[in-house]
């Protein structure tokens, strides 16, 4: 069926990146007068940086120096509608909540160069630890007024190609609103108006007063300390252990076969995300030693966009985090013996559960408990976000990806660089678990 499983190719360990210049960039006109921006309970627990890299081939009309000038100019302009990106996170001592001080202290802009060519980097699909050099996520020289919420780095390669590295606080964007930000940045870089006017009203996701938790929320766990003392608490513990790293590529042919097996009737519709999530869930859960207990319950988590699920719906242009964690449960026996159709139904139920009332209940739960998502496995999908579809004056990226840090309890889904109907599944596990995972991956696909 064309299944491919590959070890990480020997990555280029050193991209030989030199920072040429770094500076603060400020809004090019006065922004609306507001002292602080409210952050929702979803935003509150996402106080960590997300780093993405967008690779571009050389373009004779847009050498890297010209691109850097246009991106800097666009950044100055975009900090007007996105004024919070020029602000700083602060803890409100009275409420005990994080908020953004919209003080216009500036965003970061960095120009760098690499002694490598794009071709020398190799296959861009394989997340490379060296990509971290293409993104500056903090700078002592620029952060005298507090940690920056946005830093953009333009790195030129010897071939004339370049990379756009962007670090933003996750408290500012989810994947959907970050794509909108990229579309707006691309439009402004081309001398055009904003593609979409962002909606910055985070109060739209404010908890009810008083909060009403109307559902159990096993997908969430309470914090043991006050939020203000737990600003960098991880959703999953990053255990320091040796992990093998492999990418499993599922082709469009694989999806057709998997969807057919998962159908409960000839006319049933099965989503690609649900079927691949069910497949990797059973492989991951059964690769662990705990799987020897058939009654052990495994919980999988994944994100659901709540914009269209609320009443009334959130604007598509909502600029904050509007995703909540859906979950599915199954025993190891069910994962081992159950047909794929039943597991796909379990995954689908997690999304169906996310009604307006359920979402409001989860937000209200966060108001009371200040908690985090909690489960055995998180599937983080970058598959359909479409960052590489954003059209800049110099064209769309050759590839876009996050800077990846391998975690055993997070499995990432990436688009393929050549076939948008294929998906790359990034798995990092201890050696013995990886052997078991790979065996199960092929066994269940061929069953």
UniProtKB/TrEMBL annotation:
Transmembrane segments: none annotated. Coiled coil: none annotated. It holds the Pfam family Transferase. One of its GO terms (molecular function) is acyltransferase activity, transferring groups other than amino-acyl groups. Belongs to the plant acyltransferase family. PANTHER family: ACYLTRANSFERASE GLAUCE, TRICHOTHECENE 3-O-ACETYLTRANSFERASE. This is HXXXD-type acyl-transferase family protein.
